[in-house]
Amino acid sequence: MTDILVRIKRAVLKGQYIFSEKAAVEMEADRITEQDVVESILNAVAIYKTLRSRSPDRMYARERLYVIQSTNLDGLAIYTKGKLVSDAESDTFYFLISSKRAL
């Protein structure tokens, strides 16, 4: 398991995560809950892929996004995309940009 995945899981375990509006809309459309997403991230054994953010609103030029595809405890495959963010106090939280059923 990579250091990044461990850091993501630790942030999620501490409850240090938030969902974007887009992620919330996708979750509602796919009828998945916050708990489903959390279980999926905690069950992950690897990061599916790493992307560079293309958003013009990104905070840093080389912001990395992490895609995780894993199942919740009921076996439902879930796709999440997010980024690790450090605030002024160096605490890290995970910002979920996308959360939906995996295809």
Mean pLDDT: 88
> Strand order of the main beta sheet, please?
1-5-4-3-2
Strand/helix succession: HEHHEEEE
Strand element count: 5
Q: Which band does the percent of strand residues land in?
A: 25-35%
Q: Specify the overall morphology.
A: globular
Tell me about the largest β-sheet.
Answer: 5 strands, mixed
CATH class: Alpha Beta
- Domains, number: 1
What is the second-level CATH architecture?
2-Layer Sandwich
CATH fold call = YaeB-like fold
Keywords:
103 residues; alpha+beta; YaeB-like fold; 5 strands
Summarize the structure.
The chain is α+β, with helices and mostly antiparallel strands and 103 residues long. The protein has helices at residues 3-13, 21-30, 34-43, and strands spanning 17-19, 49-52, 64-71, 77-86, 92-101.
Write structural notes for this entry:
By secondary structure, this protein is of the alpha+beta class. The chain has a single domain (3-101), classed as 2-Layer Sandwich (YaeB-like fold). It is built from 3 helices and 5 strands. It has helices at 3-13, 21-30, 34-43; strands at 17-19, 49-52, 64-71, 77-86, 92-101. A 5-stranded mixed β-sheet has the order 1-5-4-3-2. Strand 4 (77-86) and strand 5 (92-101) form a beta hairpin. The longest helix is centred in the first third of the chain and has 11 residues, at 3-13. The chain starts with a helix and ends with a strand.
